[in-house]
Every structure is written in structure tokens, then in C-alpha cells.
Amino acid sequence: MNGAILLLIVSACFLVGYLVYARWVAGKLGVDPSKPTPAITKEDGCDYVPAHPTVLFGHHFAAIAGAGPIVGPVLAAEFGWASVALWIVLGCIFIGAVHDMIALFLSVRHEGESIGTVIGTILGKPGKVMFLLFSWSALVLVVAEFNRQIAGTFVADPAIATASLLFIAEAVLFGFCVYRWKMSVLVASLIFVPVMFAFVWIGNVIPLDLVKMFGLTKETTSLVWTLILIAYCFFASTCPVQYLLQPRDYLNAYLLYAMMLLGFLGVFTR
User: Fold this and answer.
1) Which of 120, 139, 209, 215 would give a disulfide with 128, using CB separation of 3.0 to 4.6 Å?
2) pTM of the model as a whole
3) What is the C-alpha separation between 24 and 176, in angstroms, rounded?
4) Quick one: CA dihedral 84, 153, 173, 46, positive or negative?
5) pLDDT digits (tens, 9 = 90+) for 184-200
């Protein structure tokens, strides 16, 4: 099938899914846009902080996208485009989107508690313990694999390491500018988004090659990056979300928007 036709069909399916099925699910859940969220009713400047809608959308968009752009093409090469296209369309509409929406909805309706706590409230302690064990095991596997891949990428392409470290520092600065120093999201975006794209170029100009800088072996360099990434995971998971994870994902979303736009243009102009 022609790529442009397939892209139009998939886009139409997602649009119908959003306008029809998502509204039906929202109705079944009893979504009430006028009901204040815990970020407003329990605002404390740390765990409960209202987010700008654009920032919140970018945060969730980048988090949900995850490894999809990487895994999708790999699966397509392995099993063929038809089966993967069906899995992506049907899986996203009827499984992935509904799962994420309900998990978020349950958390909001239960004062922003984690899904483990919510399950404990509904199913009791045994259900909570089983779910937390499953979540912990799955996250250990995911973090370990992503850690391994990213450390390997930093060794193989030091330019990515430079851009990534600069980007993390920029995300923290963005968070402080918007949430602590009350800079407009629009003004901050006009400043920080172009800088983020510039970091990609700077990374190629000043690659952080630890092998050449310190005479390390590739294996030792990979271990160093692994330890640094583990420390980053701890820092990112414990600091207030508005000062790192949220601005990081919001800014990163613009890279995803750009790639999606270029992908669309590539399909229709090739």
C-alpha cells in the first residue's frame, strides 16, 4: 500500500477514535471538566502544583510516546507493515489510550494518589501488594534496559551525551523560570525551544567523548555513564515534577512535533 494512503487512513482512524470512542469512554467515567483537580484543591507548591495546559499536554505526550517511534519500525521490519499498522491503530485506540486515560482519571478522582494506592483502596491490601510487586519488577527491567541502551549510545555517539546533559540543565532552568520566577510559558518557550534545538548542533561541535578525554576503554566509559544515569534516575524521581520531568518532557515534545511534521512531509513529498 502507498505510504501516503496508509498515513491518511491511520490518521482518520485516530481522529474518529478521539471524537467518538474517547468521548464515549469519558461519558462512562463521568468526566466533569468543571470539577477542580487535586493540583488546585490541594496546591502546596511541591506535590500539588497546577500546570499550564500546553506544558501538561507536552509532558504527557512525550511520556506516552516513549519508545514507540523506535519499536514501531523495528516490529514493522520483523513482521511486515500490515500487522504492525493494525496493532498500532487498534492497540492505541482500544487498549493504550483507554488504559492511560483511566489510570490518570482514577488518580485525579482519588486526590492525586498513585495507582498503587488507588488499587489498595479498591481491591484491598493483597491487590495493592501484587500490583506494586508487578510494577516494581517491570520498572526494574525497563530502567535497566533503557539505562544500558542510553549508556551505549553515549559511548557510540558522544554528541548525544553533550546535547542530553545540556538539555537536562535547560529543563531545570525552564522549570524555575516558569514556576518559581513566574515567567510566561509563551515567553519561556520562545527562548528555550530554539536553544534546545541548538543543543543538538552544539553536541556535534563539542562531543563529550570520555574515551578520548580520559583515555578510558569503551567498557569503562559505559560503566561510568551507567552510574551517572542511575544517579539521574534517582534525582529525577525524587525532585518536584515541575522542576525537571515536566519541563523536560514539554521541551522534548517539540522535537517529537518536528519529527512528526518532517515524517508527514516526507511521506507526501517523496
Assistant:
1) 120
2) 0.87
3) 39
4) positive
5) 999 999 999 999 999 99
